[in-house]
Amino acid sequence: MKKLLIAGVVSAALLGGCATEKAQAPASPVATPESVMVSPNDDRQYDTFTLPNQLEVMLVSDPAAEKSAASLSVSVGLLHDPMSQQGMAHYLEHMLFLGTERYPDTKGYTEFMTANGGQHNAYTWLDITNYMFKINNDAYGEALDRFSDFFKAPKLYPEYTDKEKNAVNAEWSMRREMDYFGQFKLARSLMGDHPANRFLIGNLETLGDKEGSKLHTETVNFYERYYSANIMKLAMISNRPLDEMKALAEEYFGNIENKNIDNPTVDDKLDFAKVGGKRIH
């Protein structure tokens, strides 16, 4: 299956935290889908398939897994922020955790994870937004129900706009002195009018109501435009057999709306006539 690289990488990252250590004895060969490359010493079972809504899925069944986990990526990120709301993709990532139609409590997801030995996180980068969690095996079904609702019916409460703007700003304030961000700011000065030459993380200055651009309206529009099943990829790992995991994927993720959008791309070329032009002392 094409384009499963991201899901594969994410699932591999989750495996280390979710699976118990295995003995080094030789493992019996396990049949895997042709699209999955695994070590000959890996005795876990894999499956890959595409749901009817075009969401691509990778499953990993590991009977020794002490936790179950899932990760879903959306092929949209910082490069797709509207210029009037720089940091939008990152801000929306924060907003999705604050309740859904089925689970409207803004603290419900976090409290559920804590009560069931779980952890959750997300990150936004240039062309991807990724959401992930791991949890006790016996709570996996409800966790998937809560998690999948992010991508069906988030509340996006307008009254939490200021709270999450401040959360995004706090992340920026905490990291702004890191060498990496200084280097990235320097690199931006070489990009001219390219979409990468914008403030990608977001802060109180870039995110907010402006003339002709209301933050909440732009947030809803961004979600409605880009959060479509056909540009999503899902990775799941559990101690359950593959057929049970496939049933869970179909039940909870098969009804995410497919808006049949084109995969977001940035085709702009650097205009070297407008690149640089600043003296660095």
Short structural description:
With 281 residues, the protein is an alpha+beta fold.
Topology:
Blueprint (H helix, E strand, L loop, with lengths): L4 H14 L26 E6 L5 E6 L5 E8 L13 H8 L12 H8 L3 E7 L2 E9 L3 H9 L12 H15 L3 H10 L26 H12 L5 E7 L3 H12 L28
Helix pairs in contact: 2-5, 2-7, 4-8
Question: In words, what does this structure look like?
Answer:
With 281 residues, this protein is α+β, with helices and mostly antiparallel strands. It has a single domain, classed as 2-Layer Sandwich (Cytochrome Bc1 Complex, Chain A, domain 1), CATH 3.30.830.10. The protein has eight helices and six strands; from the N terminus they run αβββααββααααβα. The chain has a six-stranded mixed beta sheet with strand order 1-2-6-3-5-4, with helices on both faces. The longest helix is centred in the middle third of the chain and has 15 residues. It starts with a helix and ends in a 28-residue tail after the last helix. 35% of the residues are buried. The N terminus is likely disordered.
**What portion of the residues fall into strands of 2 or more residues?**
15-25%
- Kindly state the percentage of residues in helix: 25-40%
CATH class: Alpha Beta
Q: How many domains, as an integer?
A: 1
CATH superfamily: Metalloenzyme, LuxS/M16 peptidase-like
